[in-house]
Amino acid sequence: MSDQIEILGIEGFGYHGVFPQERRDGQNFLVDIVLKLKSSKARKSDQLSDAIDYSKIISLVHETIVGEPFNLIERLAEVIAKNILAAYDVKSVEVVVHKPDAPVGLKVSDIALRIKRKP
Question: Per-residue pLDDT tens for 46-60?
Fold first, then answer.
């Protein structure tokens, strides 16, 4: 049996990118998180103290999006994954960073990068 938590669409306004206008003007980023859980303790106990606090994950991700700017969304995703793995006892974390307003010359609905990391 395998349990996972999905948190989709964590939004923040950040200044990540390699172009001057991205660093100057910023843009919206959205992040999806999937956590593979090591145990089913919360499922059995029905106690919040045995569960992962979703609001803390959301805050951690949001602080990273709006915090220090990175050139690449690859770095943003990596830092988010490392921070989650350092703070929570999980089997793995999947991070998807969406950059829907990326300056790529043509209109696209989204550009996203997906990474999976284990402790």
Answer: 998 888 999 999 999
Q: Per the residue annotation, which of 99, 107, 116, 118 is the catalytic one? A: 99
Structural domains for the chain: 4-117 (3.30.1130.10)
Q: CA 61: distance to chain centroid? A: 5
Specify the 3-state DSSP secondary structure of 54: helix
Question: Can you read off the two tokens belonging to residue 84?
Answer: 């989650």
Record the pTM: 0.94
Phi, psi of 76 (to 5 degrees): -60, -45
Catalytic (active site) residue 82: no
Residues 6+ apart with CB under 8 A from 50: 41, 42
Tokens for 99, please give them: 């950059």
